Amino acid sequence: MARETLNREQIVRAAIELLDAEGIEGLSMRKLGQRLGSAATAMYWHVGNKENLLVLAADEVWSEVRLPDVATVGWRTAARELMYAARELCDRHSWLVRVITSYAAAGEGLARFQERAYETFEAAGFRDADLDWAVSTPFMFVTGLAIMSSSDAAEVKKRAEQDAAAQPEQEAQAVAQMNALAAKYPRLGASMAAQAQRGQGFVEQVDEVFAFGVETILDGLTARLAGRSGASE
Amino acid sequence: MARETLNREQIVRAAIELLDAEGIEGLSMRKLGQRLGSAATAMYWHVGNKENLLVLAADEVWSEVRLPDVATVGWRTAARELMYAARELCDRHSWLVRVITSYAAAGEGLARFQERAYETFEAAGFRDADLDWAVSTPFMFVTGLAIMSSSDAAEVKKRAEQDAAAQPEQEAQAVAQMNALAAKYPRLGASMAAQAQRGQGFVEQVDEVFAFGVETILDGLTARLAGRSGASE
DNA sequence: ACCTGAACACCGTTCAAGT
DNA sequence: ACCTGAACACCGTTCAAGT
């Protein structure tokens, strides 16, 4: 616990702990300062500002991710493993996906991950601009799914349910609106009813949606490769 | 301009205007109150709180979206048009994608859109849980891409560049880091160099990435349909 | 080189009090 | 039923002053 001076690494580590524990809205410079036994404003010297601190934290966690060996498992398995690894990372650090604004603006941790992605899709047979696009497509899907299933989202939902439970009048109104929508939009209603009958909420379904989406995209990429001559090695 | 009392619709409309003009960080209850000529706290009676106001605003803009006629254009075209329409909506309202936490928690505007999506993928031949997943997959991709290319992201980037320009020392450091990454991660470096040579930044590429991703996913869904017996009508 | 404390300009939200 | 104003408990950030 004893330490001479603050440093950047230490601040980033503490920020990640706080983010993991309390989510993106739980991080404030004052709380972080308290955690580090410093004035809230001490961090500005080391990390510039809060936004930059978030970028540093995001890059740091990217380097946790385990990378497949493309040469031994083949491109399709490697691509699948990269997608699952990215999703798992977003799951473990629910705030990560909210920090990612642009993959381009990043450091060592993400670069390492991206390089392996390039290697993977190059092995598949993609070249030049096609290669860029093939790398991007799966990770836009992962990002979108992570946004939907981030625990921030889950927390918002839980809170909404608690509020509703606390105010039975509002709860009843929400149910009435749901029923009205289900009646007006029959396919949506049927899907909701089926999910309710299976006892599946969004959380249970999300793993299956992810698996479906991953295979769909891999199939789609395979189809694009097949649509060319001599593209695959 | 003269009006008797505030109402929910009016508040939501003003919020959308403010959000479109200044982005999600430009919306505050105080500014909104000012715009409406009311006390900042007057809105609480009508919309409960800020989060709920954002949800109402998001649902409102969803009803702007134009829906294709599945019966006349066929499922593949309809699916493509739904994806393009959703992306265009996210482009026009850069804050939308940041408000969407879960598609499930929504109202009339989104329900209308989703119903057409269900209709589209049902026409393609998907049923039951597969239908849910087929509907979800494209929109997770759209969401992910919208996140990356949201003008909030663009603004963050622009601001970073301005900061860098103002502080040439930092600028030089950033360039040095980029070069170091490009050297360490050759495929990434090659891609960056190629993009620079083509004079393409992220903004120019994103339309092409989107087009590629859309066709990839449509191909992937087609492949999944073909993998079954009698699934397609 | 590194840190503190006060200060500035904001936030969302509650709530008694008004009409 | 609807609105106001003051107040509370927060924010991120700057900057002079200290060591």
Automatic annotation (TrEMBL), chains A, B:
PROSITE patterns noted in UniProt: HTH_TETR_1 (PS01081), HTH_TETR_2 (PS50977)
DNA-binding region ranges: 28-47
Domain HTH tetR-type: 5-65
Transmembrane segments: none
InterPro entries: DNA-bd_HTH_TetR-type_CS, Homeodomain-like_sf, HTH-type_TetR-like_transc_reg, HTH_TetR, Repressor_TetR_C, Tet_transcr_reg_TetR-rel_C_sf
Top-rank taxon, per record: Bacteria
GO MF, one annotated term: transcription cis-regulatory region binding
Keyword DNA repair in annotation: no
GO BP term (any one): negative regulation of DNA-templated transcription
UniProt KW keywords: DNA-binding, Transcription, Transcription regulation
Cell cycle recorded as keyword: no
Residues of the signal peptide: none
PANTHER family: HTH-TYPE TRANSCRIPTIONAL REGULATOR RUTR (PTHR30055), TRANSCRIPTIONAL REGULATORY PROTEIN (PTHR30055:SF151)
Protein name: HTH tetR-type domain-containing protein
